Amino acid sequence: MNFYIYTDGASRGNPGLAGAGAYIKCLQKSVKKEVEISIFLGIKTNNEAEYLGALVALKWLQRQNLSEKDEIVFHLDSQLVVKQLEKEWKIKSKKLKKIAEQCNQIKDQFPCLVEFKHILRDKNSYADNLANQAIDLAKN
C-alpha cells in the first residue's frame, strides 16, 4: 500500500493556540482510502505544532498493518521539520528534539521506508485547513 501523508501545524501567536492536521491518502491498486486528522494542541509554538502534525500521522500509521512493500511519503511545508527529521539539520530546541526523537522512534519500528519531503505551502492547504479547524473548534 502507498501512503501519501500531508501534515501541518498552526499556531495563532507564537506560542499561542495551536492545532495539528494530517490528510492521509492510502492507495492500493484500485482501492483508495482517505483519512483526516484534526487535533487541538493547546498552547504551542508553530514549530512544535508542525512537528506534532507529523507525530500524529506517525501514530496513526503505527495502528496500520504495514509491510516492507509499503511506501510512506510525508509532505510538509516546514522545511525545518523535514530537514531535521531527515537528520540533515541539527535540532537546537530541547522541546523539538524530544518530539523529533518520538517521531524517529516510531518511524524506525516500521518495516518499510518513510520519506519526508518539503512542499510549498500552497500545496499543503488541506492539512493546513485541518490544523486551523482544530483551533477554531476549540475556541467555540
Question: How would the blueprint of this fold be written?
Answer:
Layout: E1 2-13, E2 16-28, E3 31-44, H1 46-62, E4 71-76, H2 79-85, H3 94-109, E5 114-118, H4 125-139
Parallel strand pairs: 1-4, 4-5
Antiparallel strand pairs: 1-2, 2-3
What does this 3D model show about the protein?
- This protein is α/β, with parallel strands linked by helices and 140 residues long.
- It has helices at residues 46-62, 79-85, 94-109, 125-139; strands at 2-13, 16-28, 31-44, 71-76, 114-118.
- A 5-stranded mixed β-sheet has the order 3-2-1-4-5.
- Strand 2 (16-28) and strand 3 form a beta hairpin.
- Helix 1 (46-62) packs parallel to helix 3.
- The chain is globular and about 40 Å long.
- The relative contact order is 0.25.
- The mean pLDDT is 96.
Summarize the structure.
This protein has 140 residues and is α/β, with parallel strands linked by helices. Helix content is 39%, strand content 36%.
Profile the largest sheet: 5 strands, mixed
Q: Could you tell me the mean pLDDT?
A: 96
- Strand/helix succession: EEEHEHHEH
Query: Helix/strand-derived class?
Result: alpha/beta
Uncertain ranges: none
Radius of gyration: 14 Å
In DSSP terms (H or I, runs of 4 or more residues), the helix count works out at: 4
Broad shape: globular
Strand content: 35-45%
Largest beta sheet: what is the strand line-up? 3-2-1-4-5
The percent of residues in helical segments reads 25-40%
Beginning-to-end CA distance, first to last residue: 38 Å
Counted beta strands: 5
